[in-house]
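Open question from group meeting: does this chain pack into something compact, or does most of it stay loose? Before anyone orders reagents, we agreed to write out a predicted structure and look at it together. Recording both the input and the output here so the notebook holds the full record.
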Amino acid sequence: MSHKPSKELRRARRVVDEFPDLQVVHDLTWFEDVKRWGMCIDVKIAQDDARELAEQTRWWVVIDPFYPWGHIDVFPDLQDGIEKTFHHQNRNDPPRGSGIPWRRGKVCFWAPHHVFGRRAIVSEPIGNIERLRWVFIQLREWIRRAGSGALVAEGDPFELPDFCASDPLVVFSESVASFDLWSDVQYTNGIAEMGQLHEGAPLVVREFKTPQGKLLVKPSWGTVISEAPSQPVAVWIRLTELPALPPFRAPATWGEFRSAVKNSGIRLDDILEKALATIRDGLRHIALIGFPIPQEYGPAKEPHQMHWQALSLPIVSRGRNYCHGFRPNAKGYWMRDRQKFFRDSATIQWLKSINWHEDQLSGRGRINPVLSGRRIAIIGAGAIGSVLAELLVRGGVRELFIVDADTVEAGNLVRHTLSLADVGKPKAAALADHLNQVSPHARVEGVVEAFPHPLTAESETELKECEVVLDCSATDDVLRVIGDWKWKSGTAIFSLSLGFEAERLYLLSGMPGTDYMRLLEEAFKSELEIDKELLESAELPTEATGCWHPLFPARIDRIWAMVGIAIGHIENMITSGEAITAMLLKWADGQVTVERRIWDNV
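C-alpha cells returned:
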C-alpha cells in the first residue's frame, strides 16, 4: 500500500526552506512500524551557543498522518543526532526496534511560558497549517538553549529526569512537613512497610523503619490504604541529592548509578550491602531510593520534600548461594550479589513512582482548608447528602462522619452517587465505603443509626467532636432538635433541603441554640407556600405498582448544580464567621441564582 502525505502536510513542509539554519536531509518518509511520517533535518546553531552540543545536529520530526491534527514529535537522529539527555527531554536511549532511524530522546518544548527564560511562548496552533512552522521555531530555540546550557532558569519548576520506569506503580506521601521529619533521621537505609489494595493496584509505602524495625516516619493515609493487605517489605536508601548524570540523565545501569552518587561522597555499595541484609528471605522486593528535591531551580532554592524513586530488586542471595571463597554470611551473600546482580553493566529496572500526598493530588482543585481541614458530620445520606459528601471528599475533606439509618433501594440510584452493587446495604455504610475508595486520604465513617435517637453513646461522642454539621435529612424532626442538641461550643451547623422538583434549595446556617425550624419558616415563607401548593396539585409518582407511597420528584442535574454552589457559600460563611444566615438557591432555565437573607431577630 502506497502512502502519500496530505496536501496540507506537503504545503506545511515547505516552510523549512524559510529557515537558513535548517536543511532537509530526508524528506517526508512513511514509517510503517509507527504509522507516521518522518522528516530528517540538520539544525545549525551559533558557535557561541555550542558549548554542550555540536554546531550542527541531526533531528527527525515525526508527524501523525492526519496533519495538522494529531501529534508532532522531535527525536535526535540515531547516527548523527545527540546522545546526551538534557532537561525537557526523554532519556535518549537507542530505539527499541529495528528500522527506526531516531533515538528515544523526544524533546519537550510544549512547556509553560517560563521554561525558555520566562519568555512567553505562543500555544501550539493545532489544526492550523502553520503548526509545522511553530514546531521548527521551538526546536531551534530548544537546541540553542541546550547548547548554551540554558534550558532551565532560576525560578523554573523543578523536574525529575526520565527514569524510563515501568509498572508496577509505587506511591508515597511526602510534603514539606514530612521533610522536616526526615531532617532529624540519622539512618541512611532501612525497611518500609508496604500495602496494596488489590492485585494490579499501586504499591503504597505505609511506614519507614530502621533496619531493626523501629518506626521512623509514618505517612498519613486514609482508611482504605491503612487497612489494605500487606506486601513484602521494601528497602529504602536515602541519598543526599538527585542521582543524575550530566546534563540530565537518570542512571540506566548500576555502574552509572555508582558514578551519579560518587561526587556526593556516597559509596553506594556500602549502603546496598547493609540494606540487602534485611531482605534475604527468598522473596522479591523493591528498593526505594530517596533524595531531597527543591520546588524550583536556583542556587538559593532549598530542598523542600523527599522523593522516593522505586526500583525492582532481584531475589538476593541466601542459604547456600554465596560467593566462592567466602563464608555463608552477610559478606559472602553480598559479594555474590555484587558479581551477579549489581555489576556495573547490569540494567536497573526503575519503577513508576509518584507522590500521593494530598497537596499533590489536590492540584486540580481543592476546597478551602477552612472547610476541608475540619471534621464534618453529614446527617442524612440521601440525594443531597450523597452528592454533598462526594463533592467534599473529592475536594479534599479527610474526616467525614455520616449518620443515616435507611437502606439503599434501586429507586434511590436516579439521584444518588451509589450503584446497583449497593442496593440492600445501609446507606451510611455503603456511602462511607465508596468515599474511602475515592481518596487515599479519606477517613469516612458511616453510622447506621437515626439522629437524634437512638444514637449509641459511642456515636454521640464522635458526633460531638465534629466541627461542622451538615443536615441533609430534609425532615422537620431533625430540624426541630438540631439547634438544641449536645454540640460543643463553636460548632457550625448548616441545613440543606430541596423544594419541589429541585427548583429551590434552602440553605440555613447557624450555631448551637439556633431555632432552625423558625428560621426556615420565616426566611422562606412564600417559597414554602409555593412548594405546598405544587405538591398538593401534582400527580406524584409512586414507589411501586399498587403502592400509595408518593415519591418526591427532583432531578440529579439540578441537585448537583445547586449543592456544588452551596458548598462555596458554606466555605464563605465559615470563613466570615457569620452566625445566622439563610440563602435561597433557585434553578431556572439551566441556571442557578442565589438570594441571601440575614436576620438579627431569628
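Observations to bring back to the group:
Residues 15 and 557 are 50 Å apart (CA to CA).
Residues 112-121, 544-550 have pLDDT under 50 and may be disordered.
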